[in-house]
Specification:
This protein has about 375 residues and is α/β, with parallel strands linked by helices. The chain has 2 domains: about 110 residues, Aspartate Aminotransferase, domain 1 (Alpha-Beta Complex); about 210 residues, Aspartate Aminotransferase, domain 2 (3-Layer(aba) Sandwich). The protein contains 13 helices and 13 strands. Strands 2-8-7-6-5-3-4 form a 7-stranded mixed beta sheet. Helix 7 links the parallel strand 5 and strand 6. Helix 3 packs parallel to helix 10 and helix 6 runs parallel beside helix 7. The radius of gyration is 22 Å and the shape is globular.
Length: about 375
């Protein structure tokens, strides 16, 4: 009697037949890469470097331990929605929806707005998920290049809106990976042009805790603008919770494609706990902003280094050889992000996350040696 576990059957001829069931464009894509950071000073992903105090860790642990993990998420999600609405001072007539990080909200927008012939648009270089989510949904994505100093090319943006009439326009405020906070009057003219042709605008304020301005005060003036934020940069990158607010009727339509239990009770409770201790995270953001300015000045004093203005918790620098410096810093245990291949405008650029004072000192020393 033959042993099926010791079969000599050659599976090679059919081993790749499953590929016929996968989209060709998916097979041609590169997956989102997360760098191995074990044993490294991790300054590559714009994370808040500060942890909770021992006292707050204990209190949070007790709350999480008391949750009913055997039940699907319930009313707690609506409690969190109300708490976030209060925290951001959401305008009257608006509503808020939650996502498993901003990434899921971007995906849901791609699903909800996938009408025949739709085009999504964003300035580039920008957050890679805008293009990736659109393309995975089969929606055309149009990237409009920024200027050489990473400002919005107003005329190019307006021309692209007039020609392509995008269904969705993403504007990161500040932008990733450049840290740029674009000019208010330029943004407003672009927002108005997109509204006049019937499209949506998504103001992505992922880095709002570190910026000097927000679009929140102007969102009520427009019925076609959605504002998206995340608690990742707030200090909860591991919790994975994003939120998006806009006119009630608009949010109600997009919310229809949201999975019913997309926010776990653990995510929800962590977010509520963070909002109850918002002053702790506000102090952390303040310290990060101060460190950003110190680090920017120190980097700018180094010969051959171009530092771009940042309103986020990262700094973009251009150096003679980004790959050489990236590898040199990595050998010294410092992990940053080499963005030089992401877009031609980012040639020889590294993106440096702002860490603690000690981490920044280590990074700066390794950076100087790597040059």
């Amino acid at each position: 009697m033959s042993d099926p576990h010791n079969s000599n059957t050659d599976l090679k001829p059919s081993s790749n037949l499953w590929r016929q069931h996968l989209r060709q464009d998916v097979q041609s894509m590169h997956a989102y890469a997360v760098q191995d950071s074990r044993g490294m000073v991790k300054l590559d992903a714009m994370e808040n470097p500060y942890t909770l105090s021992a006292d707050l860790q204990k209190k949070l642990g007790e709350r999480l331990g008391a949750l009913a993990l055997n039940r699907y998420p319930g009313e707690g999600v609506n409690v969190l929605r109300k708490a976030l609405a209060s925290y951001v001072q959401m305008p009257e007539g608006f509503d808020i929806m939650l996502g498993n990080g901003s990434d899921e909200l971007i995906t849901l927008l791609s699903v909800a707005c996938d009408v025949p012939g739709a085009t999504f648009m964003a300035p580039v270089p920008g957050f890679v998920m805008y293009a990736m989510s659109a393309q995975l949904q089969g929606v055309k994505f149009l990237g409009v290049p920024l200027t050489a100093n990473f400002e919005l090319d107003e005329q190019a943006m307006l021309a692209a809106i007039a020609q392509h009439k995008p269904a969705v326009l993403y504007l990161a405020y500040p932008n990733n990976p450049t840290g740029t906070l674009w000019h208010t009057d330029v943004i407003e003219r672009i927002v108005l042009a997109q509204g006049q042709q019937g499209g949506l605008v998504v103001m992505d304020e992922a880095y709002q805790p570190f910026a000097s301005q927000t679009y929140m005060g102007r969102i009520a003036q427009h019925g076609h603008v959605l504002l998206m934020r995340t608690l990742s940069k707030f200090g909860l990158a591991g919790v994975r919770l994003g939120y998006m607010l806009g006119p009630q009727a608009l949010i109600a339509e997009i919310d229809k494609v949201r999975p019913p239990y997309n926010i776990s009770v653990l995510n929800c409770e962590c977010a509520l706990f963070a909002l109850e201790n918002a002053e702790v995270f506000a102090q952390q953001a303040s310290e990060i902003r101060q460190e950003r300015e110190k680090l920017s000045q120190a980097l700018a004093s180094i010969s051959g280094v171009q530092v771009f203005p940042s309103q986020a918790n990262m700094i973009l620098v251009r150096i003679p050889d980004a790959t050489k410096s990236f590898e040199g810093m990595k050998l010294k245990g410092i992990l940053v992000k080499n963005v030089s291949k992401m877009h031609p405008l980012l040639n020889n650029c590294l993106r440096l996350t702002v860490g603690t004072p000690a981490e920044n000192a280590q990074m700066l020393a390794a950076f100087k040696e790597s040059l």
